[in-house]
Amino acid sequence: MTTLRNAWIIVRSDLRADKLKLLQALIFAILFMGYMSIFNGMIFEDVLREGDGKVLADFLLLAMIPMLGFTFSKRAMKYWSEDSYTKMLAYMRTLPIPAAVILCKRKLHAVCSFALNGVLYFGLIYAISGQVRSEFSVPGYLAFALTWIGFGLMVSGLYIFIELSFSGKIYFWFLLLITLLCLGIALLIRLAGGNVFLFSVQNAKEWGFASPLMWATLLLGTLSVQLFSKWTIHRLKSRDLV
């Protein structure tokens, strides 16, 4: 509890320190989530109506949903050119702030980001897509959204581990590799005659909040974050930030 309280104090001070940066991050999140919602909504409509674009729908969900855990900020955008995450870690180490608090702070950012970006992304898709609204009741759509948020958590732990363990350039190559893996998985699922998007839709429509898939992804997501947290703590304690 002390670690969580200290991490929340840092997060709260960050939010209060520069309200302009907070506003910029909020505007960028709204614009980016708006663009992705319109694009993804059109793909989802095609799959639900005509069955076209199944590979693309799976790829977008597999690659996009974990990114909802990112906080869109200047630091996040400049991780490649300025290695901003490493500089942030080096600064916190001089204060000094324990590795557990640094990690807890990052996880709090992820939770807040999933909450904001998730509401924007799934909310806008439901608002602009008549086909999606016709397929789902509100509880069913919430179950669908939570199913994919659970998947996002499963991958988010890995993203946080890479973000805090390596330089910005290595982080970029890991992100590229994970994106290519998502594409490969979507293609393999299609070749096997399946479709993750339609499967999650059917599961959410049939079961609602009792969906075993939804609860499984949320549970596995929580376990994944905790497992990667242990590795991240170990890495943070031994990482050379010079």
Tags for this model:
11 helices, globular, mainly alpha
How would you portray this structure in words?
- With 242 residues, the protein is mainly alpha-helical.
- It contains eleven helices and no strands.
- The longest helix is centred in the first third of the chain and has 32 residues.
- It is globular, with a radius of gyration of 19 Å.
- The chain starts with a helix and ends with a helix.
Radius of gyration: 19 Å
- Summarize the main sheet: none
Query: How helix-rich are the residues, as a percent range?
Result: over 70%
The number of distinct β-strands equals: 0
Global geometry: globular
- Which structural class should the secondary elements be placed in? mainly alpha
Intertermini distance: 31 Å
The arrangement of helices and strands along the chain is HHHHHHHHHHH
Question: What percent of residues are in strands?
Answer: under 5%
Mean pLDDT: 87
Total DSSP helices: 11
Low-confidence stretches: none
Write the layout of secondary structure elements.
Blueprint: H1 2-17, H2 19-50, H3 54-64, H4 74-77, H5 84-94, H6 99-128, H7 130-135, H8 138-165, H9 168-191, H10 196-207, H11 212-238
Helix pairs in contact: 1-6, 2-3, 2-6, 3-9, 6-8, 8-10, 8-11
